[in-house]
Amino acid sequence: QLQLQESGSGLVKPSQTLSLTCAVSGGSISSGGYSWSWIRQPPGKGLEWIGYIYHSGSTYYNPSLKSRVTISVDRSKNQFSLKLSSVTAADTAVYYCARGSWSLERDMTLFGLDVWGKGTTVTVSS
Amino acid sequence: QTVVTQEPSLTVSPGGTVTLTCASSTGAVTSGYYPNWFQQKPGQAPRALIYSTSNKHSWTPARFSGSLLGGKAALTLSGVQPEDEAEYYCLLYYGGAQLVFGGGTKLTVL
């Protein structure tokens, strides 16, 4: 079955760029009907959606982070990536990648974030 | 700034029934918001439970069900088990293809 695995820099200095990758196994990132999301969770707090990319390359970002976020896809490596620039301590969090699935059942369009990675901790500190 | 609101905490007895809700600052939640529900236990990644209001994943226990209730999305747990103690998050999809999580409900089984 589909699995997602986050990797990247665990410690980032303030004002630098955070870079993470989500490797997709057990399925193709190029398959239609899916979006590929990044979500984060600061220590002791709730979940925050960062953005997602479709297999077509279209991207959608959280308005509060849009000016600092870039999500891209590398189809040759079956992975997608997150870059968050100008980080501060407020960006310290566990970062998750997840798959969004669109389907049509009984003439109804359905959507769900069904598969999640285990998450990777990123700390912003000098 | 769209806000999705959940009860901060709820307590239920083992074997009991509890309903968690998910409200939108923009108005009534409908199926067009494709409500999703997730369970998260300490130190673990969230696990998907319900998608598009009431659809269960293959791994979702039968005691979990989703619905729309009084203009909100709702997650009902019937016959609560001790292992259901967790944080529960809802997720709504907004026009402009934005996703917004609720603040989470800490469910205590006591």
Structural class of chain B: mainly beta
Strand content of chain A: over 45%
The outline of chain A comes out as: globular
Q: Which structural class do the helices and strands of chain A define?
A: mainly beta
**Distance from first to last alpha carbon of chain B:** 36 Å
Indicate the low-confidence ranges of chain B by residue numbers.
Answer: none
Radius of gyration of chain B: 13 Å
What can be said about the biggest beta sheet of chain A? 7 strands, mixed
Could you characterize what this model shows?
The complex is a heterodimer of chains A (126) and B (110). Chain A is mainly beta. Chain A contains no helices and eleven strands. Chain A has strands at 3-8, 11-12, 18-25, 34-41, 48-54, 59-61, 69-74, 79-84, 93-105, 108-116, 120-124. In chain A, strands 2, 4, 5, 6, 9, 10 and 11 form a seven-stranded mixed beta sheet that branches. In chain A, strands 1-3-8-7 form a four-stranded antiparallel beta sheet, with no helix packed on it. In chain A, a hairpin with a 6-residue loop joins β4 and β5. With 110 residues, chain B is mostly beta strands. Helix content of chain B is 0%, strand content 53%. Chain B contains no helices and eleven strands. Chain B has strands at 4-6, 9-12, 17-24, 36-40, 47-51, 55-56, 64-69, 72-78, 86-94, 98-101, 105-109. Chain B is globular and about 40 Å long. The N and C termini of chain B lie far apart (36 Å). The mean pLDDT of chain B is 97. Classes of the chains: A mainly beta (126), B mainly beta (110). Chains A and B meet through β5, β9 and β10 of A and β4, β5, β9 and β10 of B.
Task: Tell me briefly what this model is.
The complex is a heterodimer of chains A (126) and B (110). Chain A is mainly β and 126 residues long. Chain A has strands at residues 3-8, 11-12, 18-25, 34-41, 48-54, 59-61, 69-74, 79-84, 93-105, 108-116, 120-124.
